[in-house]
Design goal:
73% of the residues lie in helices and 0% in strands. The protein is globular and about 40 Å long. It is mostly helical and 99 residues long. Helix 3 packs across helix 5.
């Protein structure tokens, strides 16, 4: 049975299809530079760093100092790690295998 996201929408499906067509890091930079503002992209990058730091058992203080995110952002990421759609965990596992 396929995963049914609460976010599922034809426009989001189309966007994800475009993501899956990216072939390398240069294409990612080019695509996301056109698609996102610098702030949007940095916010996503910060959240991904928070995911990695939480799974490495860093304290909130360490995470705030390194990333500049709020405690609310850390809490939201932590909630998603434990009770979310398992997206962070799946990609983190692959990330570690390819690191």
């Amino acid at each position: 049975m396929a995963y049914q996201s609460r976010l599922q929408d034809p426009m989001i499906d189309d966007l994800f299809h475009a993501f899956l067509l990216l072939e390398d890091q240069e294409e990612c930079y080019r695509f996301f530079e056109d698609l996102c503002t610098v702030g949007e992209l940095k916010a996503m990058a910060q959240r991904w760093r928070v995911v990695k730091m939480l799974t490495e058992n860093h304290t909130y203080s360490d995470i705030i100092q390194e990333t500049g995110v709020s405690t609310a952002t850390i809490s939201r990421v932590k909630k998603c790690l434990h009770y979310g759609a398992d997206g962070y965990s799946r990609i983190l596992e692959r990330y570690k295998q390819n690191d």
